[in-house]
Write a structure and sequence with these properties.
single chain, Rossmann fold, Arc Repressor Mutant, subunit A, 3 domains, eight-stranded mixed β-sheet
Length: 390
């Protein structure tokens, strides 16, 4: 059992709320974590057809079995159960009674928000962070070995060939989750769409351009993008503006929650390939962004990451939005040059905010032009001073 950083938050939430919901992508370790943290609770999965039928046909009888609460896996498989859980926990008035897990974020959280508002804490568990791997003595010598391998537990712990495992994972995801969330008739076009998304890591989303390449309209691409978001496959990084409305309407940049999936979709079958691949810099940027997201989620905090670009094309890769924003530039190169600091210096000149960091692909920890320089495997403390949940 590799210790998960989120464990502390989940244990805390179980002392405050009657229900704790752990959501995240399939195979990210939700069930293992829940069973490990709550060994005294009965565990059951609604993937089991008999158990699911019991929960659907007799929800009151189903819940009455659990005098000490329960860990209910894939809870969204019995959607009407949530209303009965609400009635049950209101009557019992216990904290930490039910731990729900589910991999279909859209379906699960839709039911949670309808029935359990104010009664539930929600935690998003992503695959391992690099910090968790290092604490478990699973060490990678360079960032591109890690980017290629990805962070899913089975790949990291069992040393399964990443290209093989992610290929099977994607195929299973397409056949199962996608069809349950949305009725997509032509799976081959959806697979092409996913590959096109991988080729656009770190780029501003252009729905029409992707649609033209896939042979579908831009509204279909928007719907498919929502499916990938709901399944924790992709992450859309919004632009930073002082006007909140502009953040919501301007086009986001596209990233994957896990670089192993992106690498597989790009056809990368060995970490050495990344040294010469045209997506090397984009995948390194994706790695840093996803690690910062994990830092937030593992502490039970909401996302507060953005990117910044002005009308002249001046850009900073990541802005952590807090009382005094932190600007982060991400470069895959090991040799630090003055060009790495152009965007950060322009940001300071334009906004007056001076908290700036550079994360690079080497091992140097330094300070230049008032900018803290961080190596690829030691930068997540950037978020530690941020105690504000946004």
């Amino acid at each position: 059992m590799i210790e998960r950083e989120m464990a502390e938050y989940i244990k805390y939430a179980a002392t405050k709320y009657p229900v704790v919901t752990i959501t995240g992508p399939r195979q990210s370790g939700k069930t293992t974590l829940a069973k490990n943290l709550f060994p005294d609770k009965e565990y059951l999965s609604l993937e089991d057809m008999d158990m699911r039928e019991f929960a659907i046909q007799d929800p009151r009888g189903f819940l009455s079995r659990f005098t000490n609460g329960a860990v209910i896996d894939e809870a969204q498989r019995a959607p009407d159960l949530f209303s009965y859980i609400q009635t049950h926990v209101d009557k019992s008035n216990k904290v930490g009674e039910f731990i729900l897990t589910g991999s279909q974020n859209f379906l699960l959280l839709n039911k949670v928000s309808q029935s359990l508002a104010g009664r539930v804490a929600i935690a998003h568990l992503l695959p391992f962070s690099n910090c968790e791997l290092m604490q478990a003595k699973i060490i990678h010598n360079n960032p591109f070995e890690l980017i290629y391998k990805g962070f899913y537990p089975r790949v990291q712990v069992l040393n399964i060939e990443p290209h093989e495992w992610y290929g099977n994972y994607i195929a299973t995801y397409l056949e199962r989750d996608v069809r349950q969330i949305q009725n997509i008739v032509d799976i081959s076009k959806f697979r092409t769409f996913m590959k096109l998304c991988a080729g656009r890591v770190g780029q501003i989303v252009n729905f029409s351009a992707i649609g033209n390449e896939c042979g579908v309209d831009h509204s279909t691409i928007k719907a498919w993008m929502s499916v990938l978001e709901a399944s924790f496959i992709i992450y859309l990084l919004r632009p930073y503006h002082n006007n909140l409305g502009k953040r919501l309407v301007k086009q986001p940049k596209l990233y994957f929650y896990d670089t192993g999936i992106a690498s597989c979709l790009l056809g990368i079958d060995h970490p050495v390939t990344l040294d010469f691949h045209h997506m090397k810099g984009a995948l390194f940027e994706n790695y840093v962004i996803s690690e910062l997201i994990k830092e937030r989620f593992n502490k039970g905090k909401n996302n507060n990451l953005y990117f910044w670009r002005d009308h002249n094309g001046n850009e900073v890769d990541c802005i952590i939005d807090k009382m005094k924003p932190t600007a982060i530039e991400i470069k895959s190169g090991q040799t630090i040059t003055n060009d790495f600091f152009k965007g950060l210096n322009y940001w300071k000149k334009t906004t007056g905010f001076d908290d700036r960091r550079l994360v690079h692909g080497g091992n140097i920890k330094d300070s230049r032009f008032g900018v803290e320089v961080k190596p690829w495997n030691d930068f997540r403390e950037i978020c530690e001073s941020d105690s504000q949940i946004i």
